[in-house]
Amino acid sequence: MTITDTPVDWHTRAKQLVFRTHAFIDGQATPSADGQTRATVNPATGQELAQIADCDERDVDRAVAAARRAFEDGRWSRRSPAERKVVLQRWAALILEHADELALLDSLDAGKLITDTTTGDVPGSAAIVRWYAEAIDKVYGEIAPTGPDALALVTRVPLGVVGAVVPWNFPLEMAIWKLAPALATGNSVVLKPAEESPLSALRVAELAVEAGLPDGVLNVVPGDGPVAGRALGLHQDVDVLTFTGSTAVGKLFLGYAAESNMKQVWLECGGKSANLVFADTADLDAAAEGVCAGIFSNQGQVCSANSRLVVQRSIKDELLDKVVERARGIVLGDPLDPASTMGPLVSDQQASRVLELLADGARTSRTLIGGGRAPGTPSPCFLQPTIFDDVPRDARIAQEEIFGPVLAVFGFDDEREALAIADDTAYGLAASVWSDSVARTHRVADRLHAGTVSINTVDMLDVLTPFGGFGQSGFGRDLSLHALDKFTGLKTTWYHHG
Ligand code: NAD
C-alpha cells in the first residue's frame, strides 16, 4: 500500500480539531455581547462539540456596522474586479488546503457522511468561489442606443451590506452559494449560519481574511434564528437579505423587510420534488439507482430531494422491487466511517419532526420498508430509510416537505395523470423525468412547474446553471451569472453633450 492509499483516521483527526467558538466581526474572533453561548452537538453521538457564541441584536448591530464601514470606505467595494478575483482565488485555494478540516467540521456538526463532505461539499465550495472569482472581471456593463448627443451607461453596482441566513443541510456550501457572488460583486456580508452547524462558517471566514479579504467585509454571527436571524431581517442598515431555509421562515423575512427598510429579499425555500418514471424507460436499474440517490442522499435533507416517486403502473412493481432492494442495502452508521452510506439526521428535534410524519404515513399509506428509528444505532437521530406506497394525494406525506429519508410513491396511467400528480403541491423546486422518448421528456419537462428538471438522472445542479424554484419554493436564484442579479443594482449614468 502506498502512503496515499492509507485510510484516513478521521476520529484521530477530529480529536485534533480546534473549533472557532466566537463570532467573527470586523476580522476578529469576538465573544457575544452578553457572553452567552449555546452548544453545538454531534448528532451521531449526542455529544456536545463546543459552546458557540450565541449572538443577539447587539452583535448583529456590531457586525452590520463593521460591514457598513468596510463598504463605505471602499476597502473592498472599490477594488477593481481583477483585484477581488485574486483574493477570491486565494480563498478557494485555502479552502482546498484545509479541505479535510472543513469536511470534518460539517460531518461532526451536521452528521454528514465524510465521504460526501470530502468529495462534494468542500471541493464543490472551493470550485464555486473560484468560478465567481474568474467570472467577475468578465462581466461588462451596457451602453444604451441613444443618439449621438448623449452617452448612457448601464452599470452593475454592489448594493451594500448583504445579510445571509442559511440552513444546516449543507452548512459550508449553502454559505458559499451566497458569499461567493455577494463578495465577488463588492458587497460586505453578515452571515448567520444555522444554530445546528456554525463551525465551518466560522472557520471559512477566517480563511477569507487569510486570503486577503479586508477586515469587516465578511462577518459571521452564529445565533438563534428568531433572535440573530430576525435582527438581520429587521435591520435598517442591511440592503439585501438572501435566505435559504424553510418556506415558513422565508415568509417571515418578507414581513421583516416590510416592517423595516424595504430591503431586497431573496428566498430559496423548501420543496416536494417529483421523480417521474415512465414505462418506456429501458434502464430501470439506472432509474432505481436515481430514485434512491434522489431521496436518501444526505439522509433526505436536501431541498430538492426527489421525495415523491410518480411511476407508471405497468412498471411500478418491477421498479419498486429494485428500489426497495437498494434501500435495504443502505449502511446506516458512523458518518466518519467511509463504509457508511447513511448517517444521522441533523438533530433529535429534526428526527422527531420526521417521526411525526412517519406516523402519518403509517396511518394513511402502505409501508414498504422502514418507518421508524433505526435500531442499534448510537443516537436517536438515525432513522430508517422509508418508502410508503399507495399514498393518498392529500396525505401530509404527499404534501409536506419531510426533510428526511422518506419516499412517497404514487402510480399513474398516462402522461396527463403524471403531470397532475407531479404539480399537485405548493412547491416548484425540482423534478426528474425518466423515459427513452425524447419527445416525451421534452413535452413533460416543458409542462412541469419546477425550477430545474433533470432528464434520465436526478437532481442535477451545477454552478453553471441557476438553482431555485417557483411557487412556495421561493423566487431567488443561486449559482450561475444570474446570482449576480441578487447582489447588484443596475445604475444608469447619462451624459448629455448638448
Ligand atoms: P429553517 O428555515 O428552520 O432555518 C434556516 C435559517 O433561518 C437558519 O439559519 C435559522 O436559524 C434561521 N431562522 C429560523 N427561524 C428564524 C426566524 N424566526 N427569523 C429569522 N431567521 C430564522 O430551515 P432549516 O431547518 O435550517 O433547513 C431546512 C430547510 O431549508 C428546508 O425547508 C429546505 O428545503 C430548505 N433548503 C432550501 C434550499 C434551496 O436552495 N431552495 C437549499 C437547502 C435547504
From TrEMBL:
List the active-site residues.
Answer: 268
Q: Which residues form the Aldehyde dehydrogenase domain?
A: 35-492
Sorted keywords for this record are: Oxidoreductase
- Record's InterPro entries? Ald_DH/histidinol_DH, Ald_DH_C, Ald_DH_CS_CYS, Ald_DH_CS_GLU, Ald_DH_N, Aldehyde_DH_dom
| PROSITE patterns in alphabetical order | ALDEHYDE_DEHYDR_CYS, ALDEHYDE_DEHYDR_GLU
Family, according to the entry, reads as follows:
Belongs to the aldehyde dehydrogenase family.
What is the protein name for this chain? Aldehyde dehydrogenase
Question: In which organism is this protein found?
Answer: Leekyejoonella antrihumi
